[in-house]
Amino acid sequence: MAQPTLSLDARYYTDPQVFEIETKGLLARSWQFGCHSSELEKPGDYATFEIAGESLFAIRGRDEKIRAFYNVCQHRAHQLVNGKGSTRVVVCPYHAWTYELSGELRAGPNIKAVEGFDKSSICLTDVKVEEFLGFVFVNLDPDAAPMEEWFPGARHQLEEWVPHWDQLRPLEWVEIPEKCNWKVSVENYSECYHCSLNHPTFSNGVIKPETYDIQPQGMCLRHTTQCQSLDRMTYDIQSGFAHHLEYSSWFLWPMFSFQVYPGNVLNTYHWRAIDANHVVVWRGWYSVEGLDDPKIRALAIQDRATTVEEDIHLVESVQRGLGSRGYRPGPLVIDPCGGVNSEHPVMHLQRWMREAVDGI
């Protein structure tokens, strides 16, 4: 008989050396969310962010193209920009070396006095970047395959579930600190085995748990379910769009998820790992042109007070348990037919997690 699949050993979630391996490897060689393109509306608009311990910035060029660079001057390594803003050219605040929006060195005080100085050979170090339905993703691996190969079909499916994506802007971001390893939080997100017991509002007023399923789609985990009976929904889901009676989510390994609530309401999860025992989850909500929308605002408040708060207690308890001498990895509940009470998506996640650390 086949042996059950055991969960990962606790060290994958508690060992600082594992976290260091992930930071230098997985997090530097995977597609990571940087910013929303609405922050880069005009040429010269830029936004900074940190990926895998590196400070980066994205900027829109005069050709309307979005580029991303390491946030470091090629002269003597001073950081170039902070936060968000707009600039005509990128000027290092240390010695005023000046770069074009496309990264090439434009000028620097007294550089013409340097014999053999070749200005054309100096350029900011760029980073692979893709715009994905208004979200800017970067990958520090210059040889990384495009997002379509990582997450096949996800872009097209999202366009069907969120046909007005090009009109959407961030309405609010909610910062949620969790005292757990990022993988504990991601695993919790990636199964609904716990939903009926722990998320009564979500299970009884948003989705129909018995229809919930999660299936791999490349390096994406695709969540699907029907909405709850209309007389039990906690909000009006009429939108005029197809799929308004469904809930779907696209978790893009390793740290981002697009989530579409019934009524075609787009929201996102973005995990930022702090250390082996801490992660910050950025919960994004979006509305047309970023204008205040009472329905979306109320849904965000409901979600934060119920599902999010409930999950914080769950993942932090798991992290404490992983530190116990009494923990022995148990078998995952894998139903060959899938469904809400199967942990097959966790099996896929843990395989990816093991490969990222052990290379096998």
Give a topology summary.
Layout: H1 11-14, H2 16-24, E1 32-36, E2 45-51, E3 54-60, E4 66-70, E5 84-86, E6 90-91, E7 98-99, E8 105-107, E9 126-132, E10 135-139, H3 147-150, H4 154-161, E11 168-178, H5 182-189, H6 195-198, H7 200-205, E12 213-217, E13 220-226, E14 246-252, E15 256-261, E16 265-275, E17 278-288, H8 294-322, H9 344-358
Antiparallel strand pairs: 1-10, 2-3, 2-5, 3-4, 4-9, 6-7, 7-8, 9-10, 11-17, 12-13, 13-14, 14-15, 15-16, 16-17
Average of the residue pLDDT scores: 97
Number of helices, where a helix is a run of at least 4 consecutive DSSP H or I residues: 9
Number of domains: 2
Q: Tell me the series of helices and strands, N- to C-terminal.
A: HHEEEEEEEEEEHHEHHHEEEEEEHH
- The share of residues in helices is 10-25%
Cα radius of gyration in angstroms: 22 Å
CATH architecture of the largest domain: Alpha-Beta Complex
Q: What's the CATH H-level homologous superfamily of the largest domain?
A: Naphthalene 1,2-dioxygenase Alpha Subunit, Chain A, domain 1
Q: Count the beta strands.
A: 17
**Could you tell me how far the N terminus lies from the C terminus, measured between alpha carbons in angstroms?**
24 Å
**CATH topology (level 3) name of the largest domain:** Naphthalene 1,2-dioxygenase Alpha Subunit, Chain A, domain 1
Global morphology: globular
Name the strands of the widest sheet in spatial order. 1-10-9-4-3-2-5
Sheet of most strands: 7 strands, antiparallel
Structural class: alpha+beta
- Under CATH at level 1, the class of the largest domain stands as Alpha Beta
Strand content: 25-35%
Model regions low in confidence, pLDDT < 50 over at least 5 residues: none
